[in-house]
Amino acid sequence: MYVQIEDQLKYLISAGLLPAGRQLPTVRAMAVQLNVNPNTVSKVYALLERSGFIFTHKGRGSFVAEVPQTEADEEALRQCKKVAEEAINKLAHLGLSDMEIKDLIDRTLRSRKENK
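Given the sequence above, the corresponding structure tokens read:
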């Protein structure tokens, strides 16, 4: 569970949806919001701080850090790759071959381009 929360917060920060300087909810508030144990959120915040995505001011809370653009780009690319892998795995689980998956993606991209 903590990995999913960590990945989601990294994505939100990397995509700029949680801008630098924004205060994050307290551990307890985030735990209630996500319906998880506060220890889970505490672990996520510690991991995010270690990796430079957030910083903590004792007594004031946790805040989104300024993430260097290359690091943000790498994280965004990692998240995109993860989404693509999940989609491919789901399609393969439904019985599509690699070629059928590729064809489906190609058709979807063409259709998207035509509808713009």
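The longest helix spans residues 69-93. Try to locate this feature in the token string yourself.
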